[in-house]
Amino acid sequence: MIKEIEDVVDVPCVHMCTIVPISLTVGANRIVPTVAIPHPLGNPNLSAKEEYALRKGLVEKALKALTTDVSEQTVF
Amino acid sequence: MAGIRVVHYINQFFAGIGGEEKADTKPFKKDGAVGPGTALQSKFGNEMEVVGTVVCGDTYFNENLDEASKEVIDMIASFKPDMLIAGPAFNAGRYGVACGAVCAAVSEALNIPVITGMYEENPGADMYKKYAYMVKTGNSAATMRKAIPAISKLALKIGKGEAIGTPEEEGYMAKGIRVNKIYDKRGSARAVDMLIKKLNGEPFVTEYPMPVFDRVEPRPAVKDISKATIAIVTSGGIVPKGNPDHIESSSASKFGTYSLAGVLELNADSHETAHGGYDPVYANDDPDRVLPVDVLREMEKNGVIGKLHETYYATVGNGTSVANAKKYAHEIGTQLKEAGVDAVILTST
Question: Residue B168, Cα to own-chain centre: how many angstroms?
Fold first, then answer.
């Protein structure tokens, strides 16, 4: 999906996912590794505030990926 | 030929422990055959014996690839096997990756033949097919009855030390190994034959398939993210509560287009996951854990990003064929292109 979207929309795309090897195989160009399969952008063991901070940190990383030029597949 | 010791690797589901709620099960071993291993054993008769089974939850394995591989290899080694069989995994992505990774690691560490089976589109196939005999199976466990004879037949051949034919003859995926073969006709004559067939529009089989590099050029970075409109898409199945479009929990036949107008965050009352391939408890409790609307809204308010695109797209990436995923992505992409977004975040579970 990520490849096709990047190709069609013609803008940078970032894939946020937990199993990075699959994303690399699929061919995503910008990859941000996440927490866990059932809760990629959260962690139910944390307090609500800590969990929000964790999610914010990951989205900030995604924004960094989107604002960074890459010439090949890059894991941020 | 009695005495060929086979160890079988399976996931929590095929071990009968449970579904997604047990996918974080740590590795453990059992003597003898379990689940599909008993079907393999019945095909092996007295010639080979499934001496032990190693089980690991798919989520645990994939979230702890290195550590889990090590634990699993130690358990497999403890049975002193002559051969490893993993799966079959059909089109289960995490299971396929686990089967492939276990095969690759065992082949390297124990230097014994390794066999697995999965659907050709399983991500584990591309990742690991050069390390193992990977028997092509159907895309769901409903095809187990066809997969078991195919796997056991190849396993018996390998176990008895018989010559293994080409991938086409034996039904496994090409490992990328070139084998010398003597033809009656010399290469130039065969090439001309092939060319004539091609010109006549007749089918022909190449002797040297070219690798397919299906890559997309990375697009240049967003210059000023504080002015950018960012769209979000997910394969994690986050849909409005009640799943109005009835997106299927696996092999989704469609994607959904949903408004984020006025939505400041996702919660258990507003949204849920339709995905059947992971434990839905955490995503249902707070769907922001899959689709981070809350954080993006705050960033929009504080001017960190220009705008969160008012529509999000969702499908269920669970046993979805590559062709369908590409089709949905193409339609989603076309709409996002028309909308003029500057960047896209895709989240996957």
Answer: 22
* Structural domain boundaries enclosing A28: 2-75
How much is the pLDDT for B175?
A: 86
pLDDT in tens, B75-111: 999 999 999 999 999 999 999 999 999 999 999 999 9
Class of domain B4-170: alpha beta
Residues of chain B positioned with their CB less than 8 A from the CB of A29 = 216, 218-219
- Whole-angstrom distance, CA of residue B157 vs CA of residue B187: 31
Phi-psi region of B171 (alpha: psi -120 to 50; beta: other; left: phi over 0): left
Token pair of B108, please? Answer: 């390297």
Residue B111's φ and ψ, nearest 5 degrees, are: 55, 50
Measured CA to CA, the distance from residue B241 to residue B285 in angstroms comes to: 12
For residue B62, the chain A residues in CB contact (below 8 A) are: 18-19, 37
The pLDDT-based confidence of B211 (bands split at 50, 70, 90) is low
Nearest to B348 among A15, A62, A68 (CB): A15
Asked whether the predicted pLDDT for residue B210 surpasses 80, the reply is: no
User: Which tokens sit at A5?
Assistant: 């979207």
Domain residue spans of chain B = 4-170, 225-347
Q: How many independent structural domains does chain A possess?
A: 1
Name the amino acid, one letter, at B106: V
